[in-house]
Design goal:
This protein is α+β, with helices and mostly antiparallel strands. It contains three helices and five strands, in the order H-H-H-E-E-E-E-E. Helices cover about 40% and strands about 30% of the residues. The longest helix has about 50 residues.
């Protein structure tokens, strides 16, 4: 009788440990994918906001997306870029046991010496990388 109880208890303990390990792996994977979204946007946005260079942006476009180059004519009046705020918004990464494609909608404010601009982006995660679906830079008020 004791060996049956011990076997049941051991089986439940092993199953619980496996469940915990899977949850930790899932959490770690989702966190890594979320960080990659922010890293991707920062790598694309800094050259664009500092120099008006959209090369990296167009290299990260999702298939079939026809994105116009953001109007960056204002940056010559606003430069230099002082700081890009942290990206805020939603990043949805489904668990490994759920269906769905990871997606993100993020925004940040760029602070220049003579004004500000807001950046808004929508991304989708495909084939191990984040791809841009929407991207816009909105000129804010200039400093007086």
């Amino acid at each position: 009788m004791k060996s049956v109880r011990f076997s049941i208890f051991s089986g439940v303990a092993v199953a619980a440990c496996l469940a915990i390990v899977l949850l930790v792996i899932d959490y770690t994977n989702r966190s890594r994918i979320e960080r990659a979204a922010i890293d991707t946007l920062s790598q694309i946005s800094i050259p664009l906001l500092e120099q008006g260079n959209p090369t990296l942006l167009f290299g990260q476009l999702d298939a079939g997306i026809d994105l116009r180059s953001p109007s960056m004519s204002f940056i010559t009046q606003y430069l230099p870029l002082i700081e890009l705020d942290s990206w805020v918004g939603s990043i949805e990464v489904p668990s490994f046991y759920a269906e769905g494609t990871p997606q993100a909608r993020l925004s940040a404010r760029a602070h220049y010496s003579r004004g500000v601009a807001d950046v808004r982006a929508a991304l989708v995660y495909r084939d191990g990388r984040w791809l841009i679906r929407e991207y816009e830079v909105i000129q804010g008020p200039s400093a007086q």
